[in-house]
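We now fix the convention by which a protein and its fold are recorded. The integers have meaning only within a learned vocabulary of local backbone shapes. The record below shows the convention in full.
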Amino acid sequence: MEEIYVRHVELLGFEKRDFPSQHYVYMLMVKWSDLTEKLIYRTYPEMHTLHKSLKEMFPIEAGQIERKDRIIPSLPAPRWVDTQKSTETRQSTLADYCRSLVNLPPHISRCKHLTNFFKVRPEDENPPAPNTLKRNETFVVSRELNRGNASDISGPIILDSYRVIADFIKTSKHEINLHTGDLVEIVEKNQNGWWFCQCEFKRGWVPASYLEPLDNPEEAEEAEPNYEGELYMTTDVYKAEQEDEISLEVGETIEVIHKLLDGWWVVRKGEETGHFPSMFLQRAGNKEQYEAGRTKLKGQKPPPRRSTIRNAKSIHNKSRQRLSQDAYRRNSRRYLQEKGRNSKIVAKSPLRERKNQNNIPKVSDSSSEGELKREAPVIPPRPSPELILERCTVNTRKKVSIHKSRSSSGS
């Protein structure tokens, strides 16, 4: 199976961050060969480190042996101190560099080092943190620059359009204000229920529960429930606020049976089911990821649920029907019962399969003994002395003759 590779990189803008100290990161939308699109954040020094590594790995293509052979694009070294002005003016250079990089021959553009650099890191997936004291500032790149960054190989990135169903007021600079009826384009759909959107010249995070697709809502984007369940662990405590939610403590192991786009997944604990914020869940079995998930949750809150939004106005006459918790519990119980019955059958099946493979007929317990008796071979009659003397070997005939003579003398 061919490994995925980067097909297109689009520069969306940059962010000013103040933790652990003031610095700037560029927002890059990476389109992969499997048609997935991921938003990542990289500093300019990181980009330049990648550039230097590629030059060391491919000295001929970098022009270090013969200048005329150079095909790897150039990238100016970073300054000692970055300012907002220098970060902004460098956007055009970085956009051109990314475009040229993915258009290089496959042995460079698809090499493992470059591919790993553009993969999503844990810090790229950090959701907005509305309660932090210092907010990140986002600066969006101009549309003209984006047009110049179009790739002939992959084509333009087509974003899904959604409509806002209720007014949303941002609580951090990560987010954007929206009004009922606004049309937005979805840049990234995060599993935690916060989606990165653009509306005219604004970009930021918005709760998925405030958005609806422009197309027919019956075209469900969400996966069907999986009552087999996936094992996850809770990374934070949550107390249920709605009747269909479930309260869990830190470190509990549960089963996720339905992943919903609004970030509120349906989980199962024993026979109990309920909605639980996915941002407080981490896949079981990886201790390092679990601890990292707990660390990055500080100051973060789950997105609001659709049921808590007031004055929601949908353009669709009929919205998608949601399953009730009674339906989840009923279907889950039915699945577990069926699984229990199947496991008992499977426990007996190996012996049956071996019997069938050896062509051994199936017999009932009551008649097995009689059938075994009927199938026992018949003992042949003992040959007469005359027949032995006629057909057997010399030694055998001699023994029979001796036995016969003793018998006759004894009589």
Summary: Residues 325-357 form the longest helix (33 residues).
